[in-house]
Amino acid sequence: MSARGPLWTCEKCGRTFANRNQSHACGRHRLEAHFEGRPPEVRTLFDAFLAALQENGPVTVLPQKTRIAFHVRMSFAQVTPRRGGLDGHLVLARRVEDPRFLEVRTFSPRNHLHRFRIAKAEEIDARMRAWMREAYAVGEKIFFFRGGPHDFACATCHGEDGKRIRLQDLPNLSSKAGAQKGYTTWPAYRVSQGELRTFQWRLNDCFRQQRFPELDFTSPASVALTTFLAYNANGAAFDAPSIKR
Length: 245
Ligand code: HEC
Prior knowledge:
The chain has 245 residues and is α+β, with helices and mostly antiparallel strands. Helix content is 29%, strand content 23%.
């Protein structure tokens, strides 16, 4: 009998393994892999782009399979390193008509994707930096976005210390301590409901309290909010599954 069967290819990440359904860290991509086989100037260009974004505040860099996304509470920019430079886009709250943007795609009145290509660090100039600053601010918005019949944002209930609804203390999720408490303790067994609940469920239940439309599970908005809260909770030890009332 042959010891070597055909390789199994993971449909999600394309990696091949000897064993079918081999468990692996699929979807986690290394930043370095994006620069393999590319001239070193492309890495220098990427570092200059990232440094310009970070002038506005902290940014989470999320290497994905074919691109590198930048998050503050939601993805507001991304690039793909190429041989000749960086292809990418910025998300802005208005349409900017400028020859530097190869294409502008409008998703909603305050959500416009601006595609660019940069080949030299000099192109990350004052004008580009001003657009980067705008895009960063779009990323910050989702937690503070107010709407619905009560004009609530997440921040209305979770943006200050010491708030509560009836006997329920509301964690201040914009603070480190509050985010650490709120983020690290899910999934949790809800004694009052007799069920184990996930973090996505928790977010959806808050969408309901906010009178927002139902959250699509695993949608970009849910991932962006989770990323935002995870980012605010940085440094805490994970403490799940937990028990909540
Ligand atoms: C109307 C007030 C209100 C709004 C608006 C609201 N929440 Fe909540 N949130 C609550 C309450 C009340 C709880 C505690 C619920 C419970 O334990 O039954 C809670 C709990 C949470 C928790 C879990 C905290 C913990 O320690 O377990 C997270 C995370 C959370 N909310 C995130 C959000 C996010 C993100 C938004 C915006 C999409 C949001 N909430 C909007 C009232 C609100």
